[in-house]
Every structure is written in structure tokens, then in C-alpha cells.
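Sorry to interrupt, but I need a hand with the structure work. I would like you to pick a protein and set down its sequence and fold. Please put the record directly below this note.
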Amino acid sequence: MTDIASKPFAVVTGASSGIGFELAKQFAQNGFDVLVNAEDAGIERAGQELATTGANVTVVQADLSTDEGVERLYTAVVATGRPVDALALNAGIGAGGAFLDIDLARHFEVIDLNVRSTVHLARRVLPDMVARNAGKVLFTSSIASTMPGSFQAVYNASKSFVQSLAEALQNELKDTEVTVTSLMPGPTETDFFHRAEMDDTTVGQSSKDDPAQVAEQGFKALMEGKNRVVGGGVKTKVQELGSKVMPDALKAQMHRGMAEPGSGS
């Protein structure tokens, strides 16, 4: 019988579906035990499916948009008695529409989950990694981090924060064996756009990247200790290259064309 503690241990947030679930599957299929988290009941089904890989799976249903939810998750991590070998900070939501048309509470919800919880959980887990001089952290950023997000303003700004945080930590931890990787997906076939109320937009109705492909690319980059990886297909990679030379005002107008309500066919 395999000693559970002999296997590496990964924590994945936002793991009930989409990229988060596929990331957890990558870990489970590659010899990791996993602790998975999401706020919705779908995390139980996800955990059951992940367990079929032979991994030891711990499920924690908690809302990371609250401090209490983050602390509940971290307490569960500590309770395993195992060091975190890999942390995938993937949980995130969007809110489509004009900035002034979206309730302030909804803006804060995006900030609390995408920004505050990311900082909170990273600050909890990283000290032990640094003390052990071992560990890997994956931030799910976005191509959106590279452009002003007209009609998705707070979401894009939140991902710019995440991308900047990841890059800063890469520098701060460069003299340790702890690595930090940012995964930058483009539009991906998940529930994200439906939950963000963007079904009637151009991007909401367009063909999107496969979350399994994005997760596989992110996992590989994390294991190789790369600083960042653009997740998805050729179209996404070209978009990321173009954003490096395009003026911000033009990027904002281009984003408007993709995300403005009613812009879909």
C-alpha cells in the first residue's frame, strides 16, 4: 500500500469545473494527491471524479470571496498535516457590462475573489514553502491582464493585478527553490461567460479554447518552473503577441467590440 505522505500534494481553487477542474485532473493524473475547493456543490462531484484516478482527494466547499472562506480552506490544508508542494490559485469570476450598470456589490465580489482571496491564500501558504525552500505556485491570470477591459473593466483590472503580483513574486523569490508561474488563458470554453452575463457578446458567442488544453499547458509550465505561459491555441497566442505592440486605447476599443452587451450576432 502506497504511503499517502510519499506523494506530492497540490491545492487547487475554483476546481468544480472549467480550467480549475482540468488543472486538478492534471495533478491527479500525474501522481499528486489533491485538495480541491470551490464555493458550489459541484465540487463534490468533481472530487468523486478525480478520485477515480487513484489520487487521494480532499474536498473543501468554501466561498473564497470571504475572509472566512479563505481561512476555512487554509485550516483544511493545515489539517492534512502535509506540506503543499503545488498551489494553483485559480478561483475567479467576471462581470460583463458597462461599469456604471453593474452594482457596486458585484464589482466588490469580483475584487474579493480575484484579488483579495488570491493575496490572502498566497500569503498563508507561501511562508511554509519558503521555509522548506520547495514548492510551486500557479496563478491563473489571463490575456485580459494585458488590455483595458471595456465592458469588463473590473475583471480585466483584477487580472492585471494578479499578473503583476505573480511577476513581483518571481523576482522576490528568485533566490529560493520556490517557483511562481502565471497561466494566461484567452477565452476558454467554460461557464465563465455565462456566469458573467456575457452570452449576448461577441466573445461570449465565439469559439473558445479547450480548458483541458489550457490546463495541460499550465501544468507543464508549472512543473518546468517557467515564469508564464499563454494558454490555448494559436489565436490566443497571436492575440497576446499583438497586445505587446498595440496602444492601450486601441486595445480598449478592440475589447469593446468583443465584450459590449449585444455585440454578438
Observations:
- The chain has a mean pLDDT of 95.
